[in-house]
Design a protein that fits this description.
By secondary structure, the protein is an alpha+beta fold. It has three helices and three strands; from the N terminus they run βαββαα. α1 runs antiparallel to α3 and α2 crosses α3.
């Protein structure tokens, strides 16, 4: 059973600076996590029904199972990615 971790990023104060760090630094860290099958990310540009856009970016990370995901995030690469998330994620991110 594949599992997916979803990350929702709130709108950053400096979107261009956030994107630069996100693609140049953060995503290479994420892609190095052992056991990661694939990672996808997208900008949120609209909400269903024309509602308010609550988040700036969404990221989805796929693993074979929860054990693989836990092992990946317990690895040095996973710890580095999580630490970087803590540095770049705007308040309100989940």
């Amino acid at each position: 059973m594949t599992v997916k971790l979803v990350v929702l990023y709130a709108t950053p104060a400096d979107p261009a600076g956030f994107d630069r760090h996100y693609f140049d630094t953060h995503m290479p860290l994420v892609n190095a996590i052992p056991g990661l099958l694939r990672a996808e990310t997208a900008r949120v540009t609209s909400a269903a029904g024309g509602g308010e856009v609550s988040y700036y970016r969404i990221a989805e990370m796929y693993f074979a199972d929860s054990e693989s995901m836990n092992a990946g995030f317990s690895s040095p690469e996973g710890i580095a990615a999580a630490k970087d998330y803590g540095q770049i994620a705007p308040p309100g991110s989940r």
